[in-house]
Automatic annotation (TrEMBL):
This is GTPase Era. It comes from Tepidicaulis marinus. Monomer. Belongs to the TRAFAC class TrmE-Era-EngA-EngB-Septin-like GTPase superfamily. Era GTPase family. Residues 17-184 form the Era-type G domain. The lineage of its organism: Bacteria, Pseudomonadati, Pseudomonadota, Alphaproteobacteria, Hyphomicrobiales. One of its GO terms (cellular component) is plasma membrane. Residues 25-32 are annotated as: G1. GO terms for biological process: ribosomal small subunit assembly. The gene is era. An essential GTPase that binds both GDP and GTP, with rapid nucleotide exchange. Plays a role in 16S rRNA processing and 30S ribosomal subunit biogenesis and possibly also in cell cycle regulation and energy metabolism.
């Protein structure tokens, strides 16, 4: 067997396709359910190439020779606070970055205010837009056709799919369409990273995400989270210790906050998500350490699966 030219990490690019698919929709539209159907048991890799909150990797699906990388565009609606507004902008940026954008609509709820708001936002997105009407098991076909026409009258979608994410109806068609329409090119993520994202990285990624969500522009990007220890306890819970490395004492202060309040709330959010993800109780201990100059050490970047920025 001959080795792939990339050293065996990526498969040969013959006939391969790969791309980012932004899945957007109002809360409860069924995004998670659809992703589970599309991605199956495969967990997304978690070493982001770029450290931003723009889009979160939700899962990777392989369909034939195509790799579909699903990204979330968090907080696309309800921009109440300034941070939220910044997130909304970032979210639309995420849609702009994607190769294809799928709007998932709960067909039973129909054209709600939230859906209207998303449609408005989508008018400026210069990407192929696909509409997926979900929960078709709950409504009559005639109503579905009317809804499809109403939505397409507002924003012309390249294609409209009618699916039941829960029952699986129509999901294969959508998947096949996406697979055929992502750009030709080598896969974006090596196959082995998709199957088993190391749990320690995953846990560190969760905390890192909470840090960015909470502190946003206050903190510089030179910050890293490492999971130092992970113990399975007898009562079924997990004890996880993490260290957040920052470059300066001042950053440490910001991160910890008054009387530890900032770090405490970040820790609480991370723990909650970890508990949901791992389906068990989690004891999370986070320490903050100053490690000067780690930002200049290329080795650290590659450990995190990041490219070392040239300047
Ligand atoms: N009947 C029916 N229910 C569905 C279908 N797809 C999703 N649901 C239900 O809709 C609810 C919301 O689904 P989620 O997948 O959690 O929705 P979501 O868009 O990820 O929600 P957020 O994470 O809050 O944005 C759940 O109770 C699902 O079981 C479907 O095709 N038919």
């Amino acid at each position: 067997m001959s080795e792939a030219p990339t050293g065996g990490i990526l498969k040969s690019a013959d006939g391969q396709r790969a791309g980012f698919v932004a899945l957007i929709g109002a809360p409860n539209a069924g995004k998670s359910t659809l992703l589970n159907q599309m991605v199956g048991s495969k967990v997304a890799i978690v070493t982001h190439k770029v450290q931003t909150t723009r889009s979160r990797l939700r899962g990777i699906a392989i369909e034939g020779q195509s790799q579909l990388v699903f990204v979330d565009t968090p907080g696309i609606f309800r921009p109440r606070r300034r941070l939220d507004r910044a997130m909304v902008q970032a979210a639309w940026g995420g849609a702009e970055d994607a190769d294809l954008v799928v709007l998932l609509v709960d067909a039973q709820r129909g054209l709600t205010e939230e859906v209207e708001a998303i449609l408005k936002g989508l008018q400026d997105v210069r990407r192929p837009l696909l509409l997926a009407l979900n929960k078709i098991d709950l409504i009559r076909r005639e109503e579905l056709l009317v809804l499809a026409a109403d939505i397409n009258a507002k924003v012309p979608f390249a294609e409209t799919f009618m699916i039941s994410a829960e029952k699986g109806d129509g999901v294969a068609d959508l998947r096949a369409y996406l697979a055929a329409h992502v750009p030709p090119g080598p896969w974006l993520y090596p196959e082995d990273q998709i199957a088993d994202a190391p749990m320690r990285n995953l846990a560190a990624e969760v905390t890192r995400e909470k840090l960015f969500l909470r502190l946003h522009q206050e903190l510089p990007y030179q910050l890293t989270v490492e999971t130092e220890s992970w113990k399975e306890l007898k009562d079924g819970s997990a004890r996880i210790e993490q260290v957040i490395y920052v470059q300066r004492e001042a950053h440490k202060k910001i991160l910890i906050g008054k009387q530890g309040a900032t770090l405490k709330s970040i820790g609480a959010q991370a723990r909650k998500e970890l508990e949901e993800m791992l389906e068990r109780r989690v004891h999370l201990f986070i320490f903050v350490k100053v490690r000067e100059k780690w930002g200049d050490d290329p080795e650290r970047y590659s450990q995190m699966g990041l490219d070392f920025p040239k300047e």
